[in-house]
Amino acid sequence: MKLKETPEYVTLVPGGTNGGPRNGHYAALDPHFAAAKTGAEAIMAGLWNADDWETFRNNWKGAGPLPEGTPQPGTDVTESYIKIPTRDGAEIELKIMSSAKHTKSAETANDTVVVLRMHGGGWAIGWHGTEAIENLHAAAHPNVVLVSVDYRLAPEHPYPVPFNDCVDALKWVKANAASQLHANPEKIVLLGGSAGSGLSLAVALKAREENISGIVAMALDWPTGSHPKFFKQLTEKHGYELESYVQVPDGTVTGAAIMEFFLDAYTPNVQPDPYHSPLLADSFAGLPQAFLQVAGFDPLRDEGLAVAEKLQRDGVPTELHVYAGLPHCFSMLFTDLPQAKDYQARQNAFISKVVKAANSQ
Q: Does the keyword ATP-binding apply (predicted)?
């Protein structure tokens, strides 16, 4: 797979940049990660050694051992699959995961929360196993059913197909939570990582527009907020600091040229639209409470921080954690880092808090 030699939508600064005055300090490398950075970049480079999309996607499906303390498939978490129809007559697959030790039934449905997972992967790669560790932790919760959406991928299926598939999955959950998942259709948490976070946020915006009830929270990890073509107008209009593409153009796991590669696949001939660039929405008011985790040595850092800023500005209860000096998706790729354990513990605590609050009403 071939990247652009120079990013098209942002202008890199010769000699680099220290980033913006508010967020730039987050990029200073964490010493634990710095020791592993060179080896990690060699591994990442190997994943790009592919001549076609099928090979490229398969390169990213390799899974390492689960970290100690992760719930185990089969023993702790049951897994099943179902195909559902989409609005254009196609089918997509959902993976359904829940605790093997707490059987779901009609009697437990009222207190069972659906965690609807939109996976990461730049809208063009990724699958049910992309965030396997997080999914197993969430699904092991006694009051959770996790539903992972295998939305169709760009470039074969550019925007709005992946987004529409996620909206259709939400509507399927609403209609079938009680009967097929033994869960409450009015207790739904959107969970997304990277591109999946942008999709989750966009789904929440669509649910608000169409008065689809039931979403009680969003957990957004290293979220995408906007196509970089619109950074300048967002900065001028709202004062967001969107400089991490330029400060971290080669961020080990992803970089400016890599992001543009995926964006060109997902949104060719891009036009302004909040459903692919949620920061373009007039307001986030009325969206459900949000939990964000952002990496400091990540070109997506400032988008995530801008999303948090907009949520807070528009009155949405928002919990934000920033991990200075660490790369995109570090919790999945560098599981021995102490911050990876903090990351997972915080996500677990947020989901538990949301479940407890939803079931106390």
A: no
* Chain segment 260-317, per-residue pLDDT in tens: 999 999 999 999 999 999 999 999 999 999 999 999 999 999 999 999 999 999 999 9
The answer to whether 133 touches 336, Cβ cutoff 8 Å, is: no
Name the residue type at position 170: L
Compute the radius of gyration of the chain from its Cα atoms.
19
Instruction: Find how far residue 153's CA is from the centre of its chain.
Output: 15
Question: Cβ(245)–Cβ(228) under 8 Å?
Answer: yes
DSSP 8-state symbol, 280: G
**β-strand pairing of 254-255 with 250-251:** antiparallel
Question: Which of 262, 357, 331 shows the shortest CA–CA distance to 33?
Answer: 331
Q: What type of residue sits at position 19?
A: G
Strand partners, 116: 147, 190
Tokens of 318: 């928002």
Residue 130 half-sphere exposure toward CB, CA atoms < 13 A? 27
Question: Nearest 5 degrees, angle CA 84-CA 90-CA 95?
Answer: 35
- Give the E-state strand segments of 162-252 in sequence order: 188-193, 215-221, 250-251
**pLDDT digit string (tens) for 130-158?**
999 999 999 999 999 999 999 999 999 99
Q: CB neighbours (10 Å) of residue 16?
A: 12
- Count CB-CB contacts under 10 A for residue 205: 18
Question: Residue for token digits 């689809």?
Answer: 212
DSSP 222: S
Distance in angstroms (rounded) separating the CA atoms of residues 201 and 207: 10
Say how far apart CA 144 and CA 115 lie, in whole Å.
Answer: 7
Q: How many CB atoms are closer than 10 A to CB 37?
A: 15
Give me the CATH topology for the region 24-358: Rossmann fold (3.40.50)
Name the band, by pLDDT with cuts 50, 70 and 90, for residue 114.
very high
